[in-house]
Structures are given as C-alpha cells and as structure tokens.
Amino acid sequence: MNEDARKIRLIMELRRIGVLDTDVLSAMERIPRERFVPDLFKGQAYENTALPIAHGQTISQPSVVGYMTQQLEIGKRMKVLEIGTGSGYQAAVLSRLCRRVYTIERNRDLLSHAVKLFQELRLNNITTLCADGSGGWPEQAPFERILVTAAALDVPPALLEQLAPDGIMILPVGDTPDNQQLLKCRRTAEGIDYETLWPVRFVPLLGGIENGVENGR
Question: Model-level pTM?
C-alpha cells in the first residue's frame, strides 16, 4: 500500500471513530505526518498509533490529535496556544486551522527540530518559545483556544487566566497514565464550565527548561 492509500485509510478510520469536522480532517490530510516521526517509524506514520520521538517523548496517535483538535472548535481568525510542541505535528495541524499558533516546549532540542520542520514546510504562522509551559505565554495572552499535550495533575491556573472570554482549553488531567481524562474547559460569563471527554494517556506536564542533553535524564 502506498503512502496516499495509507493516508486515505487513516482518514476513513478517523471518521469512523467520530472525527467528522471536515476542516480538521483536511488539515490532517495536508500535513505530512511522516516528516515528524523518526526514520525508523516512517512506515507507521499513517497508522493510528502513538510513536516514540526523541528524549522519551511521543507523537500522539492521529485519533487523539483529531479528536482534541475537533473539540477546540477553532475558527480561522483565532490565536491558539499549544503547551508541549514535541515533534511539532499537532502545532502544524493547528496552523492550518487558525490565524496564529503560539507553541511552547521545554526541551530545546525538540523545539529546534520542530522549528526546522515548520520552516521547511513553510508553516509561517507558528511562533515558538522554549519555556515552562505551565506558565503559559502572558505576553501574547489572551488566547481564544489553548491545547495542552501533556498531562497535568490539575488545571494550571495561569492557563485559565490566559483564556479569552468564550475561550476553550483542552487538556489531559490525571496523576498516572492509567488515570488520565481529557478535560474541556470553556470560559463563560459565569466562570469556567468543565466537561470530561475521552480517557487518554499522555506524558506528564513537567516544569522548568531542559537543554536536550540525554545524559542525566
């Protein structure tokens, strides 16, 4: 099966599990996932599975990327904040759906690699920052949408503060990989509404900045 056929099969699978937003599916079809995975796993790029990347991190399975993106309800004029750039794949998908993506990664090596891919793919509406993502990006706030791609013990207060009126934040919450739930937070005139979505498995949301050196990890 060639790459185009594998991509079509994946899109059909995403539809079957409930990712029905045509804009989201189109964005995922246009972004070459194989560019964001290590050479060893390029043959699995269009399988619905998470894959390892550098520094003990993963690129999320396409069904999770599609579902989380769909739940954001993104509009084309919105500013979106992503916490946890990782491979850069999720930010690339978001970039096809909104005005600008601001993405934060604590590991310098991962961020450097993602930035190179953004440049090669001419994704010019992505702005990056190496920082502790739990603090958000106050200088660029507020954001209409926030997506967190690592599991927090609880909803980070700083991120809620940076959520615009009528804004939506999607994030995994839980103290262990077996006890994580995807949470949808919506800012209303009365406060924050919370909705529990899928059970998920994400790496933990960590503080501080990491220089990317493997030793001592």
Answer: 0.92
Overall number of domains in the chain: 1
Write the pLDDT tens digit of every residue in 93-104.
999 999 999 999
Give me the residues paired with residue 168 across strands: 145, 186
Spatial separation of the C-alpha atoms in residues 6 and 45, rounded to whole Å:
9
Contact 180, 173 (CB under 8 A): yes
DSSP letter at 179? G
Query: For residue 207, how many C-alpha atoms fall within 13 Å in the half-sphere facing its CB?
Result: 3
- Is residue 108 in some structural domain? yes
- Residues annotated catalytic, as ranges: 60
Residue 125: both structure tokens together: 């509406």
Which domain CATH number covers 183? 3.40.50.150
Within 8 A by CB and 6+ apart from 78, the residues are 98, 99, 144, 145
Cis bond before residue 142 (omega within 30° of 0):
yes
